[in-house]
Structures are given as structure tokens and as C-alpha cells.
Amino acid sequence: MSNPPSNHGVVYMVAAIASIGGFLYGYDQGNMSEILQMKRFNSYFNEPDSLHQSIITSMLTLGCFIGSLAAAPLSDAVGRKYTIVIGSCIFVVGSALQCGSINQGMLIASRIIGGLGVGVLSMIVPLFQTEIAPPEIRGRLVSLQQFAITIGILCSYWITYGCSKIHGTASFRLPLGIQIVPALILVPLILIMPFSPRWLVSKDRDDEAIQVLARLRAHGDVNAPHVVEEYNDIKSKIQEERESVDNSYIHIYTGRLRRRIILGMGIQCLQQLTGINAIMYYAPKIFKQAGMSGDSAPLIAQGLNGALNVLCTIPAILWLDKIGRRKVMLGGALSMAIWYAIVAGLMKQYGTPYRDGADMNMSFANKAASKGVIAGLYLFVASFAASWGPVAWVYCAEIFPNGVRAKATSITTATNWLFNFGVATITPVAMERITWGVYLLYCCFNACALIATYLFYPETKNVKLEDMDEVFAQSIWAFKIRRPDASRSRKAEMSISSNEKGGEFASL
Asked: Can you tell which superkingdom this protein's organism belongs to (predicted)?
């Protein structure tokens, strides 16, 4: 028999507040792409060339790589929500230093510090959302992280565009400083949110754990049968892992979890190799290369691109728990490959490269071809937003056992940032040297993502976190795997009966 309806209003609120961490990530990611196009910024920082621009951009991701790895032991020690607080505080320091930077060295160092905070948040927010979510809406709740990222990117575009009209260094300092505000809002809000019930059980704080579950699932009723059953599921699984599972980093790579860590790292690697951050980091330059003229046109086009990114993430939030992770990934990879192939073909056939100062641009005698390139880029972003944008974060946060979830998720998140760093560093140089070939390369990567998903990534929708072992104990070929019955009770496997635990907490 299926569980009674959960108290979804509360769990949505908690997940949404945690998602402010995603907003910080998106804002900091998005504002630099437009700041790099500001004449006042470039003049103040001694006209950085494409290599130095890529360093300024990519140093954030280097900090994110380190921060995401550091978040695992931190979150296991002090808890998921306190780790969100620590990440937010680090982000505030980095943002303040970026705002006050007086030379390239200080700017790069401050972006590394800001990246440490973003790295912590990018790992811990989806992990926290996963651990508070009921299985039937887990994909939707964790997708709120990606939705907040897209809103952050959109806000950064338009705020930075508006500030570009200001005279003096305030034109770039103001958008860098504004990002401190949501971080300061997040800290007090997350402090009044509940702890992860799974983290509480892992620390033997059982009374608190069942009270949190009751608050999230049953309006505070600790004796609700589905609350007691979920508590027992979590408790028995954690006890089983303590007795029989090595939760060290070495075991993640060499034991029965090796397949899952490879899949988790693979999906994060492929998410970056879709090329999404090539567009998000360097969109004004990309739209200019696609044939847009004028100082403001590429910036406005990027603002519209950000709005499209937000709107097209909404369908993923709505359907990820209905049609599943696997179908969304397959459809997304196929469509992204198609749009990139069209963009590359149009640029090769109708584009003529030319040197515009330090930049390599393209001219299009055929204006329809230029519009086709721009449309193809928009459609690529829409396809990514509706598929691989949210699903990579959802998948990695849900496939690992409780004892290693933080460690493994930090590794997969660090993989995302490592390849993000590579994309941010290589893209501007590649755009200069091979122009349309960049899009053909990303087309091939998306084709690889399509094949890998079909072969290796099993469906995980509606599967309890405590039942993921059953999914990955089957064939390595994803198309042969049968999903466990999500409604099947695990009472026979529990060492503590529901009746017993109901009586134990009746007096709370």
C-alpha cells in the first residue's frame, strides 16, 4: 500500500530556502560574462586578453573544485544545514573582495575564495534537498537547485547590463557587490530550517530525527504510520551499513560502489561537456561571433538567453518525477547534439572569420544563416535547461548510500567543477582558433552522452534512497535493469518493528 500524502508544503519551503545557495552560484557564474565585455572593466584591469579573461573566469571554478571536496567531511561533522551557513559566509568574503579588487591578482584571488563558497554550496544544497525529500517528489525538489541557478544567472545578466550604463568603476563593482545580499538572507533562514533526518540518525539523534520526519511528512504527527516506517527504513539501513560497509574514500573507488561513483562522475563530466558553460561564460562574445553587431546587442541577447534558461527549467521540474531521469537525459542529449550540428554547419557554410582587434569574429552575408545560428544556440540552451541542467544534480545526490553520500557527492560535484574549469579555460582560445569547430566538438560530446545514458544509466525515479542498492545490484546494462517496486514495504528487513517504534515515540 502506498504511503499517505506527505506534508509537501513544508518540504517545498525548506528545499526552496536551501536553493538560495544555487542562486548565489548562478549569479556569480553569470555576471562575469558581461563584466568582461565592459570597457571600463577592461581599461581598469589593463586590457586582459582572451587568455587572461579565461583565467579570471576559470579561477572561480578552481575554488569551487576545492570547496566541493572540503564540503564532505564538513557536512558529515557539523551537519548539512550548518555547512550551507559556512559556504554562504565564505561566499560573502569572496564577493566583498571581488567588489573591492584593485588589480588582476586581487581579482583572481578573490574569485578563488568566492569559488570555495560556491563549491561548498553546489555540493551540499542538492544533498540536503535529497535527504529531506519523499521519493515521489525528490526529482522536483532537487531541481529547485538548478531553477535557482538559472534565476541567479538571469538576474546577474540584467543587473550587470543595467550597471554597465553607470560611469566609473561602480559599473562593475556594484554587480559584484550585490551578490552579497542573497547570501546574507540565506544564513538566518537556513538556521531555522530542520536538520537532515538521515544525518540525525547517523549521529544517533533519533528523537530529533523522527520529529523532523513528522514535521516534513505529517504535520508533526510522530505516530503517523508512514513517518514511523520511513524512520525505521533509515535506521535499519544505517545500522546495516555500520555493520557491513566500509565507508572510506578507498571503498568508494574499489568496493561495490565503484560503478556508482563512475556513473556519478560521468554524468557530471558529460553535463559540462554539453558545452552549456561555454555559452553561459562567454555568451556576449559567442553572440557577437554569431553575427550580432553593436555594443549592446550581444548583451541583450544574453539577457534573453537567461530568461529562456529559466523558463525551460520549469518543465524539467514538473516532469522529472513523472517520466523519469533516463528519458529526460536521452531526449536532452539527442536534441542538444542536433542543435550544435546545425550551428556548426551554418557557421562553416555561411560564416567568414575575420579579426576584430584582439577578437576573432565572423561575418554572415546571409542574414538568415546568422539568425539560424542564434536560434540554434537558444534552442540548445532550452534543451539543456529542460534536461541535463537539473538531472545531473538529482542523479548524483540520490544514488549513493547514506554512509558515503556526502563523500561521493563531493567527488561527483568536484568532477563537475574540474570539467567546468576546463571548459571555461579552453573555450575562448578554441573560439579564436577553430571557430565553428567548437560547436562540432560539443555536438560529438552530446552524442557520447546519448550513448552512455542508454547503455549505463538506470532509472531511479520514485526509488527510496534506502532501496538504491537493489537498482545497482543488477546488470551494468541500464536497459536491462528493472526498477524495484517503490511501494513495496521493507518491514521484513527491519530490525525494529513499526509497532514497537510507534509506542516508543507515543510520549514525545
From this structure: Eukaryota
What domain count does the chain have? 2
- On whether both 145 and 221 belong to a single domain, the answer is no
Contact 222, 508 (CB under 8 A): yes
- On whether both 99 and 114 belong to a single domain, the answer is yes
Question: What does the buried/exposed string (b/e) look like for 359-370 if buried means 16 or more CB atoms within 10 Å of the residue's CB?
Answer: ebbbebeeeebb
Whole-angstrom Cα distance, residue 389 to residue 382? 10
Q: Residue 470: which CATH number?
A: 1.20.1250.20
Rounded Cα distance, 52 and 55, in Å: 5
Q: Are residues 212 and 269 in the same domain?
A: no
**For residue 217, what are the CA distances in angstroms to 109, 132, 198, 223, 232?**
44, 10, 14, 11, 14
| pLDDT above 70: percentage of residues in the chain | 90
Residue 503 lies in a domain: no
Q: Does residue 318 sit in the same domain as residue 399?
A: yes
pLDDT band at 259 (very low <50, low <70, confident <90, very high): very high
Q: Give yes or no: residues 46 and 64 share one domain.
A: yes
Q: Are residues 234 and 137 in the same domain?
A: no
Its domain, for residue 225, covers 199-244
| Single-letter amino acid code for the residue at 28 | D
Q: Which three cell numbers stand for residue 202?
A: 547517523
Q: Tell me: the pLDDT tens digits for 44-57?
A: 998 888 778 878 88
Contact 399, 468 (CB under 8 A): yes
For residue 345, the surrounding DSSP H or E stretch is helix 325-350
> 162 and 36 in one domain?
yes
B/e letters for 113-128, b = 16+ CB within 10 Å, e = fewer, are: bbbbbbbbbbbbbbbb
Decide if 378 is inside a domain.
yes
Q: Which three cell numbers stand for residue 145?
A: 537547485
What pLDDT is recorded for position 491? Answer: 41
What pLDDT, in 10s, does the model give residues 347-395? 888 877 777 666 666 777 788 888 898 889 899 999 999 999 999 999 9
Tell whether the torsion through CA atoms of 281, 284, 285 and 287 is positive or negative: positive
DSSP 199-240: HHHHTT-HHHHHHHHHHHHSTT-TT-HHHHHHHHHHHHHHHH
Asked if 217 and 344 sit in the same domain, the reply is no
